[in-house]
TrEMBL record:
Residues noted as binding Zn(2+) in the record, renumbered to the chain: 259, 262, 361, 420
Protein family according to the UniProt entry: Belongs to the histidinol dehydrogenase family.
HAMAP family (alphabetical): HisD (MF_01024)
Native source species: Jannaschia helgolandensis
Cofactor(s) the protein needs: Zn(2+)
Record's protein name: Histidinol dehydrogenase
Length: 433
C-alpha cells in the first residue's frame, strides 16, 4: 500500500520529511556501478561498450554494427503503420511550433559612453541525445530531444538508444528520421553516456548530452558533467496530483499510474482536501492494477513510493507541492489558474481536469524531458536554450575607454593584478599624450 499522511496528524512533519528524502535514484550502489562503467569505457572504448551491451542488453555488438545504418532506418521506418506515422507527425508539428517560440534574440546597443555592448546566441556543435529503451520504447523522447536541438541549429545530432535483445523499434527510428537525427547508435545506459562524453573510435565525442533515462543514466550524466554539458537530471518519472473531491477517482488513479508504469523507481503522489476521496483514489488504483499490463512495474512503484496526503486546504497543498518540486504537477481543482499562481517549483503544470499529464508526454507541445528528484527547485524542462550558448560582445571607443578605464585600473590595483591595470593604463596613456 502507498503511504497515507494527513497534515492533521501529530507525526506529519516527520513523515513528510521522510517522504521527501526517499532515495529513489541516488543509491550508492547505482553510483558505484556507474563510476565503474564510465572508467571502463574511458579505458577500453568500443570494446567496453560492446561488452557492457552484451551484459545489460543481451546481444552481441561489434564496433562495426554499433551505428544503425541508413538502410536499417529506412527499412524500419517503412514498417510503421500510417496511423502511427500520422500520430508522430502530429506530435512533431506541435512540439516544433512550441519550441520555435523559445528561440532567443541577440541584443546589441551603444551606451552613454559610446561603448557597444551585447550578446549573441549560437548552437553547440554536437549534441548527444539519450533516448531510453530498457523497460519501454520512447519515440516521443526522440522528438522531445531532437526537435529543440534542430530548432537551435545544432549541426550534429547523435542519438543513443538501447535495443534490448538487439530488437530495433521502428517508431523510434522513424521519429529520428523525421526530426533530423544525424547518427544513431544502438547502445544505452551509463556506457552510452560515457561513449558520447569521452568518445570512442566509433563515436566522436559530443559537447552536450540531453535526455531522460533510468537511475543509471541519470547518475552517468551527473558524473560526465564538466567534460560535457548536460541538460538536467531527468531520471525516473514523477507525478503529483492535487485534486479536490469534485473529480472521478478513477481518472486520478490512472493519472497516478501513468507515471508509476514507467519504472519501479517512479513516484506518484496525490494531495487532496478530502480524505474519503483519497481513499477512493487508492481503491481505484488497486482495482486498475488488476488489469494494467505493466502492473509488475506500476505496482511496486505505487507500493514503495506512492503517497496520499490529506490537507486542510489548497493553500496548504501548494506549500507541500513546492517542497516536493515535482516533475509533473496536475491541478485537478475548480480554479487551477489560482492554484498555479502559488506554485513556485514544478517541472510542468497541467491545469484542470481535462489536462491529463499524458497529453504532455506526447502531443501537448511543451517538452516532456523534465527535472526529477526535486531538481525542479533549480532546473527547467528541456528547451531550445539547452542547445545554445550565449557569447557576450563589447567594443570600446577611445571615448568610452577614457570614461570607464580609470575605474578598471583602480579595481586592478585593489586586486593586486598589475598586468590588468597596465593593459588599460597603456591605452589611457596613449590617449593622454
Ligand atoms: N524525467 C523525464 O523527463 C523522463 C522522460 C522519459 C522517461 N523517463 C524515465 O526514463 C527511464 C527509462 O528507463 P528504462 O530502464 O526503460 O530505459 P533506459 O534506457 O534509461 O535504461 C536502460 C539501460 O539501463 C542500463 N542498466 C539497466 N540495469 C542496469 C544495471 N543493473 N547496471 C548497470 N546498468 C543497467 C542498461 O545499460 C540499459 O541499456 C524511466 O525511469 C522513466 O521514468 C524520464
Ligand atoms: N512521462 C515521461 C517523463 O517523465 C515521458 C514519457 C514518454 N512517453 C511516455 N511518457
Ligand atoms: Zn510518461
Amino acid at each position: 500500500m502507498p503511504q497515507f499522511l494527513s497534515t492533521a496528524d501529530a507525526d506529519f512533519d516527520t513523515r513528510f520529511a521522510a517522504l521527501l528524502s526517499m532515495k529513489r535514484e541516488e543509491a550508492p550502489d547505482v553510483d558505484d556501478a556507474v563510476a565503474a562503467i564510465i572508467a571502463e569505457v574511458r579505458a577500453r572504448g568500443d570494446d567496453a561498450v560492446c561488452d557492457l551491451t552484451i551484459r545489460f542488453d543481451r546481444f552481441a555488438l561489434t564496433p562495426e554494427t554499433m551505428r544503425i545504418t541508413d538502410a536499417e532506418i529506412a527499412a524500419a521506418a517503412g514498417q510503421v503503420a500510417p496511423l502511427d506515422r500520422a500520430a508522430l507527425e502530429t506530435a512533431a508539428a506541435r512540439i516544433r511550433a512550441y519550441h520555435e517560440r523559445q528561440l532567443p534574440r541577440d541584443e546589441q546597443w551603444t551606451d552613454e559612453t559610446g561603448a557597444t555592448l551585447g550578446w549573441r546566441w549560437g548552437p553547440v556543435d554536437a549534441a548527444g541525445l539519450y533516448v531510453p529503451g530498457g523497460l519501454a520504447t520512447y519515440p516521443s523522447s526522440v522528438l522531445m530531444n531532437a526537435i529543440p536541438a534542430r530548432v537551435a541549429g545544432v549541426g550534429r545530432l547523435v542519438m543513443c538508444v538501447p535495443t534490448p535483445d538487439g530488437v530495433l523499434n521502428p517508431m523510434v527510428l522513424l521519429a529520428a528520421q523525421m526530426s533530423g537525427v544525424t547518427e544513431i547508435y544502438r547502445i544505452g545506459g551509463a556506457q552510452a553516456i560515457a561513449a558520447m562524453a569521452y568518445g570512442t573510435d566509433t563515436i566522436a565525442p559530443v559537447d552536450k548530452i540531453t535526455g531522460p533515462g533510468n537511475a543509471f543514466v541519470a547518475a552517468a550524466k551527473r558524473r560526465v558533467f564538466g567534460r560535457v554539458g548536460i541538460d538536467m537530471i531527468a531520471g525516473p518519472s514523477e507525478i503529483l496530483v492535487i485534486a479536490d473531491s469534485d473529480n472521478d477517482p478513477d481518472w486520478i488513479a490512472i493519472d497516478l499510474l501513468s507515471q508509476a508504469e514507467h519504472d519501479e523507481s517512479a513516484q506518484s503522489i496525490l494531495i487532496t482536501t478530502d480524505a474519503a476521496f483519497g481513499q477512493a483514489v487508492a481503491d481505484a488504483v488497486t482495482a486498475r492494477l488488476e488489469s494494467l499490463e505493466r502492473a509488475n512495474i506500476a505496482g511496486p512503484s505505487w507500493r514503495d513510493f506512492g503517497a496520499v496526503i490529506t490537507v486542510g486546504d489548497l493553500d496548504e497543498a501548494s506549500k507541500l507541492s513546492n517542497r516536493i518540486a515535482p516533475e509533473h504537477l496536475e491541478l485537478a481543482v475548480a480554479d487551477p489558474e489560482a492554484l498555479s499562481d502559488k506554485i513556485t517549483h514544478a517541472g510542468a503544470i497541467f491545469l484542470g481536469q481535462w489536462t491529463p499529464e499524458a497529453i504532455g508526454d506526447y502531443v501537448g507541445g511543451p517538452n516532456h524531458v523534465l527535472p526529477t528528484a526535486r531538481s525542479a527547485r533549480f532546473s527547467s524542462g528541456l528547451s531550445v536554450l539547452d542547445f545554445m550558448k550565449r557569447t557576450t560582445l563589447a567594443r570600446m571607443t577611445p571615448e568610452s575607454l577614457r570614461a570607464i578605464g580609470p575605474a578598471a585600473v583602480r579595481l586592478a590595483t585593489s586586486e593586486s593584478l598589475q598586468a590588468h591595470g597596465l593593459s588599460v593604463q597603456a591605452r589611457l596613456d596613449r590617449l593622454n599624450r
